[in-house]
Prior knowledge:
Blueprint: H1 4-8, H2 18-25, E1 28-34, E2 38-40, E3 48-54, E4 57-60, E5 73-77, E6 82-83, E7 97-100, E8 104-111, H3 112-121, H4 123-158
Antiparallel strand pairs: 1-8, 2-7, 3-6, 3-8, 4-5, 4-7
Helix pairs in contact: 3-4
Amino acid sequence: MISLEFLEDVEVFKGLSGDQLTAxxxxxxxxEFKQDAKLFGEGEPAGHLWIVIEGRVDLRCELPGLASSEExxxxxxxxxxxxxxxxxxxxYQYRLSGYCASGQCELIRIGxxxxxxxxxxxxxxxxxxxxxxAAVVGRRFNRLQDEIARLRGQHAMSGW
Length: 160
């Protein structure tokens, strides 16, 4: 069973009460993956929210006709990080593929139906989780913007 102490440190569960964390805990299922294992694929139905317990998960864009590699990594998520915001947003498909990037990855998998049911039963819990999720997605978007600006700057400088 996933400990409440771990859950209270998860970025999307920060600010939940003990009772709310206990409700989330009841929906958690532990999954283990070996290095390079694919958790989910870009374009697949987003049926789960994932939380990294141990290891590192790379989020990668899949390029047609090419094998997945670290070069395609957009973001890396480590312990306490959440993956799978797409399960809350139409068209409910993963936007990137998830791969275990360390020797072994241990994750929590929460079914979309289960977490949404919790949101319906406790709208305060839903508000906190979705507010935290929006902040996580915003931070990741800002990092991506910074990286694009950096790469464009390098390209502009090398073109002189």
